Write a sequence for this structure.
């Protein structure tokens, strides 16, 4: 299924809800940034709003508490001109 960039989807974190039932981890809104040509990889960005403040803080806490387990990798990002060209192709 092809979903265009800019579309909003909802993600339900079933497993994470067991760890903290006070954090709204159901129907977390994300914007689709881009999708790979083979549709196997989707880049998402959480929609920041009053409803997602606690969810974002929850994920930041997980990342901060697990820094020793994470390995930073350099990501090569496309230039802004390339991204502008790509969005006009669809």
């Amino acid at each position: 299924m092809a979903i265009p960039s800019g579309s909003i989807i909802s993600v339900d974190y079933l497993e994470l809800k067991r760890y903290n039932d006070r954090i709204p981890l159901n129907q977390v809104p994300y914007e689709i940034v881009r999708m790979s040509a083979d549709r196997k990889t989707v880049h998402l960005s959480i929609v920041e709003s009053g409803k997602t403040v606690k969810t974002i803080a929850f994920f930041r806490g997980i990342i901060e508490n697990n820094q020793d387990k994470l390995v930073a990798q350099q990501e090569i990002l496309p230039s802004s001109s390339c991204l502008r060209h790509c969005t006009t192709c669809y």
In short: The chain has one domain: 7-74.
